[in-house]
Automatic annotation (TrEMBL):
This is Glycosyl transferase family 1 domain-containing protein. InterPro entries: Glyco_trans_1. Residues 174-224 form the Glycosyl transferase family domain. Transmembrane segments: none annotated. Pfam families: Glycos_transf_1.
Length: 228
């Protein structure tokens, strides 16, 4: 069985949860999931390396040279694509874009490239599924890392309506094996998700909310207009 090294940015965060889905639903390979600080010289034996985005690859520093002879795949998680990914696309065996907009943009720049793929986000429907609503007052919800300016959580304060905010603060949630139950409860206790970001590929929060049967009010960013 081929061995695959998946490189995430942090445990208990979006890339970690996506990697868990890959491991759970794709049994064709032997997977190992690590973050950059855990990569060591003993990891050179892997048949394939998949890194979620270029910033995570950049954290590898000189250790990237260990995988020069290994098949390497990289993800594009934002639209517009990271300029470093655009420049380095030809150095990877495959580039997976989680939004059609970023895929089309890369294909415009590299029209002859045959290593660029559209790889939409998936979520675990064993975890996220519709639940009965309480029938109480209509509740809006917002979820994300509020410290990122591009998430624009401040816009929720301009709504003339109370919004339940689920913030993910750095450090506290970077825990291996972190439960998804808080997010299950969050979706079960709101009636509509508000998404205010201005930089996304296709956010997992919106797909999770849609899987839970929630309507979504969102900015026209990434693939939000036709994927939620």
């Amino acid at each position: 069985m081929k061995s695959v090294l998946i490189i995430i940015d942090e445990y208990g965060w979006a890339f970690d949860f996506v990697s868990q889905g890959i491991v759970k639903h794709s049994g064709a390979f032997d997977y190992t999931v690590k973050k950059p600080i855990e990569i060591n010289s003993g990891d050179r034996h892997f048949d394939l390396v998949f890194v979620f985005n270029y910033p995570t690859w950049g954290f590898m520093g000189e250790r990237r040279t260990w995988f020069e002879k290994t098949r390497r795949c990289i993800g594009v998680r934002t639209n517009p694509p990271d300029p470093r990914t655009i420049k380095a696309a030809s150095r990877f065996h495959a580039v997976g874009c989680n939004s059609l907009k970023s895929y089309n943009r890369l294909k415009e720049i590299h029209p002859d490239a045959n290593n660029i793929y559209f790889t939409p986000n998936g979520i675990d429907v064993d975890i996220f599924q519709p639940t009965p609503r309480s029938g109480e007052a209509f509740k809006l919800g917002w979820a994300g890392a509020a410290e990122h300016p591009y998430k624009r959580v401040h816009l929720t304060r301009q709504l003339n309506y109370p919004v339940r905010v689920m913030c993910r603060r750095w450090g506290k949630y970077f825990t291996k094996g972190r439960s998804r139950k808080p997010m299950q409860r969050f979706y079960a206790n709101i009636d509509c998700l508000v998404h205010t970001s201005n930089v996304e590929g296709m956010t997992s929060v919106a797909i999770e909310a849609a899987a839970c049967g929630l309507p979504i009010v969102a900015t026209d960013v990434g693939d939000m207009a036709h994927s939620s």
